[in-house]
């Protein structure tokens, strides 16, 4: 299914007066409202194909209904999201879950919905049915060269699919690690990983990037071979300028100062982009901004300041993507909430008077520095987001419109109440 | 020094028009603005006497200037804070740091500034100069009955000072614990603590309460004898109805769900109140709301809902106090920021439509439940706080007024740039 | 398959001389070697039926071969373990994974292998195929009374199966919780849980116990309705003397002092027993003693001292069970390693001179207290374990024997290389 | 005071028979006992001058008696430790706490006791009395170039003192960081630090090294400018081959896999050495091996394997030092316990058959890999340590000898019961 512009506008109509009252107010209160609205219009966050169905844990999965049964239906769902929020104009695929049978028709479908293809993701953390060698003990770090070779070739195949679809980045997350002391030799594992990545790197087209994710634990629970930003950075440095570090917000030890890592990676020219989500304990893959929205804001403060310092375009300078698991909410609603939270943080960060902040920092006026950030954060920027959506023919209230238009009911009608999407 | 009402009003004058514009707007947008303003007017948070000077760590202390040199000057500082924010009408003393030489004149001074005395705090985590027995190995849990007796008597003496000043609660934080496995017998330590507390409990005046704080570590680094809410609750249950559990936000292991603990203690009638602060790592004693303001809001959501369910008055039903350490900011500014953050969280919690929330919960509409909380949290309630202050003759912008009136300079002029207050 | 006593003895023969040399040495060095050997002979740890197959994570599962395909084959595997280590004389079942079609023949089979049935476990964290109502939003804490009723009845049914098999305890672990702030009302969830447990409690046979497990997170990632020992203790206290708290070593926040919790629960008569495993990050379910064996020893120190103080028999006073997931090792080998680690910790704890320790504690001789524990811990007690096994007709080296006898090959031969056991 | 070799030998006499029995046994059981004893004889761990007095926390300090009042007395204490354990042949000084008035006489004193001078430590985390500019807001990262210059010059002065004493490494730990979001610009702070370090680096004598420590928090509680190994590594890489990363075991976030970091730093040629201690929560600075001795062993496993792979001499290839705080134990006894724990871990690591381990790893025989490590770890190597000490004229039981010789009483007699050493 596809959402008609008109049906969204009809729903907007009822809320228009209230919106205009709110927008007029905030536009009068903040100095750069128009600037922020324009930035928000240009800003998009990619949707992962594997997050359009209900997620699960090792203890079970409780599916919802109307989940996409094919790559086409996944693209259709991203189209729905984008029609509502006008900020999700791309999809990130996971191979082999999303192998396109016919790349050209898939591209056409996406294009009709205003979508393109973000980074493609390889998968060497599961064994596929006809796979020759097992990844039980890892992939790119494996002690057996044949397994490493198989994993390298899989990554090169993923690039090939990406090229067909017009993607230009390969995102690599490895689950390689160990569960017990003594299981592996850290040094050899790291060197094997480095060599394997080099082979993949050498196969990258000229205009492609490789993004190297890190994660401290899960599904391995003693060590992970690319466990922290330093290890990812080290690998990316050895590889060269096309390689950089991908930050998944949930992939950190308790209490990590993620915004500082972001700042330093930007400084070193090695920040690939983000997998956004939120968490209270570990890689909980919760809705972005649902647990600690101030941290998200602090990250965007670093991003705005740091990207401006390097002259990077906010919308395209790095990769923006959600990576969450929707275990108890409608996946589409959950993704709409995540995009909203990201854009709120971004808008608030754009409110910060960077000159004033620098001046407070230069004077060690700590209370003032805190006030500047808090003033931006405490501002209600939601009317700015709504205005940006309105101008782009999106919904003033995306989740509200999703519900009023009974989209999920229609999807269940079309796909059945027992459909289960591939993914985590 | 004392702040004249007139001088604050003069400063308010310049910001009045802007304030009225903002307040009018928000009052038009939210359903219960007037109700919230009234609640805010009635709401006060006690100031700890030991937080009026610059704090330190084991690595050092970098004093500011104009710190209070006596109990009188500490009360004077709280008077300044209260004159600005009209929400800090009491002070919490720490004995023996704050022994009043003349209780009656101290009470008169406080009364003139609109202040009264909150819970009194005992100190058995340090040795005092003329103290007979050492607390090196603990106090109420000590293996030696004589040490326990000395500590019990100190607590009873603290109650006596509190009675003289019109306080009606004893706040007990013990550093008792161990640094190494084998150092103590957990069971005996717990039983000794229970017996010692019983002796103190028996000495409480009829209208007094005893508040039992818990903390998982520091200054002991292997075990703490009252280490978590469960241990505090167990002790408070054994003692009786005058005993309850005090929650210091910084006294939890990483990732603890504090709001759930608050909810359950309220349910069981055992929530004494709070020591507010914020932290990223441990008991960092940072400004309230400076690290994770959403958590603070979630705690206030539980408080508002839970206190209403028990028919408790928000302002007086439990104890509200700040317990922070101001290592790099002016202590008065820092405390003003903390009070502001607490009241913002409280106002946002008052915005929540509890009926609507209950309905979403009853329907397992998780996305809706989240939206309800986030809608309240994302609302800019600062004009409501400013209005409450304005009506109470406080400053629209407390820190701004503090700076414009050059209060710190005057304090330095009066007390010198090398004064160092007692405290942590 | 079943291991013949003779085949184990044949293998022991080769190592007998070395064993006797080692045992003679240690028996001469420590004061109470014979006492420890006897205690070890009497000590058994239950094997969970769900840990006999390869475990997995949400990212995948890499099965081994020869996994048990039925309850009978699970019992057979425990029989193999017990034949080798003579310390695993019971099995803990999980309903509905392990519903016995014919209880009497199952009991006979177990009995032939020297086994009996430990606590039975209910499962309300997954939906079963023909189940009427879903546990997606919880079971005993559910907002809908009908769901709670279904979950209560399931538990009562589990008791019924347990009675048939001669078990006498129900172990309840709930995954009930929430993923997002606003999803549930903590107080109502707790009260619902309490009422549901009361109904189950009322259905317990006279000689039965109910063990209430706690866990801070996973599979819910914002709150868990029985999240810590304090919450479990509170529920168990309300229920009565048949209810107590079950400690799973992996169910704690980072840095929790578990041994102190154990000590206090024992003191209050509310320690049900253990689910043993080890972890570095969260509920990693790794082999017992593989990550932090000293912590395991410290727990056993509290157990030995605390059980002796209450006059509890070490072997039967509380429940002993493994709860681990074997993702990269042969499950049987992994379980053998776990049992070995538990018994080493127990033997080391039995080495502690409790009188000497008490004396050091009474004198605050911290260095001495540490030395006493470390002296016990640093002693190589493996010959004591081997001797206990030898006397009970077990293997001197259980894993060595398992490999030499090619047990896994035989199991694969009988069950196939693609069999997958039910479980996590 | 100084311990006579004869008095130690007299005490050894009583325990000699038992020692020889134990040593003979273990020498017969393990393949490379003689090799390990020789390695242990060659192995020394430096003692920090600031750990010879009782430590404290921000909540207080409970001094013991007989603490060293001068640099001479600190050296004297290290002499006592070395006489007992024969493994502490150097001292690490902290400037300005330990400025030598007369370097030549200090060197002579040390030399008489068999000691030399390990790395010198600068201190820019505290303000000294006559210091012109304050380090309240940092030192090498400071926004003010004048403060940075002062801190650089202090470090260069420390090198000068070190040169006089024969030291050849500068150890730099910075407390630079921030307490609040907004306080500083991470990028500028990092760049300033890098530039300041470059100036110090340029002043290093040819044969000197600079060791850069990292720490995630404390005394700053929001960010630390050199917060993790990655940041330290990045700085050391920019500086050059004389710069490397110093690992303090307590300076990590919860659950960090430290041994993996050690392995990678060794691989990259950037491991400077260690500050040994142990901890349960944060930088608790507890006795080495008192909380998690298996982790210490795993670190030594990486060290032995990794140093051998690089052809580094175990004794001198990297820097070995204790950095602990002794709050409740006699500092000398505490240090003796720490050295013992380190050497036990080292001896156990030397027991590992690296060929066998590599083979298990190559075959993904995870259970076997774990067994190999555990077999080494479970071996009682204490007789090997005692033998190494005996051969070097040290005490069989250092703490026992310290107590029997009533060393602390003599120190109190000489220095008084109220002496307080400089340090943390």
From TrEMBL, chains A, B, C, D:
Keyword Transmembrane listed: no
Transmembrane feature ranges: none
GO MF, one example: isomerase activity
Keyword annotations of the record: Isomerase, Manganese, Metal-binding
SUPFAM superfamilies the record matches: Xylose isomerase-like
InterPro entries assigned: L-rhamnose_isomerase (IPR050337), Xyl_isomerase-like_sf (IPR036237)
PANTHER family: L-RHAMNOSE ISOMERASE
Protein name: Sugar isomerase
């Amino acid at each position: 299914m596809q959402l008609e512009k008109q049906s969204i506008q009809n729903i907007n109509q009822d809320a228009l007066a209230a919106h205009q009252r709110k927008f007029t107010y905030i536009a009068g209160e903040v100095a750069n409202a128009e600037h922020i609205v324009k930035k928000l219009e240009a800003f998009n966050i990619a949707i992962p194909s594997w997050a359009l169905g209900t997620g699960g844990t090792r203890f079970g999965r409780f599916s919802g209904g109307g989940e996409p049964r094919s790559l086409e239906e996944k693209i259709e769902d991203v189209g729905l999201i984008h029609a509502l929020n006008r900020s999700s104009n791309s999809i990130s695929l996971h191979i082999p879950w999303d192998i396109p049978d016919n790349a050209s028709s898939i591209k056409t479908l996406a294009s009709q919905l205003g979508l393109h293809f973000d980074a493609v993701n390889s998968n060497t953390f599961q064994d596929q049915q006809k796979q020759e060698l097992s990844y039980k003990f890892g992939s790119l770090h494996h002690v057996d060269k044949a397994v490493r070779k198989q994993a390298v070739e899989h990554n090169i195949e993923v690039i090939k699919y990406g090229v067909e679809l017009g993607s230009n980045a390969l995102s690599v997350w490895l689950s390689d690690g160990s569960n017990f002391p003594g299981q592996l030799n850290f040094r050899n594992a790291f060197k094997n990983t480095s060599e394997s990545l080099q082979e993949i790197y050498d196969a990258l087209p000229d205009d492609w990037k490789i993004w190297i994710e890190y994660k401290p634990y899960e599904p391995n629970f003693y060590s992970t071979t690319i466990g922290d930003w330093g290890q990812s950075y080290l690998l990316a440095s050895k590889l060269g300028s096309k390689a950089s570090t991908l930050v998944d917000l949930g992939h950190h030890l308790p209490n990590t100062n993620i915004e500082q890592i972001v700042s330093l990676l930007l400084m070193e020219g090695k920040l690939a982009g983000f997998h956004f989500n939120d968490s209270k304990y570990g890689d909980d893959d919760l809705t972005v901004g649902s647990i600690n929205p101030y941290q998200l804001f602090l990250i965007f403060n670093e991003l705005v300041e740091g990207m401006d310092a390097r002259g990077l375009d906010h919308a395209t300078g790095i990769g923006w993507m959600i990576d969450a698991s929707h275990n108890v909410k409608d996946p589409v609603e959950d993704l709409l909430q995540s995009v909203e939270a990201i854009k709120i943080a971004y808008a608030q960060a754009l409110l910060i008077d960077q000159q004033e902040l620098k001046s407070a920092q230069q004077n060690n006026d700590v209370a003032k520095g805190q006030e500047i950030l808090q003033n931006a954060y405490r501002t209600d920027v939601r009317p700015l987001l709504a205005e940006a959506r309105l101008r782009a023919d999106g919904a003033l209230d995306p989740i509200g419109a999703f519900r009023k238009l009974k989209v999920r009911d229609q999807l269940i009608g079309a796909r059945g109440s027992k459909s289960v999407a591939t993914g985590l």
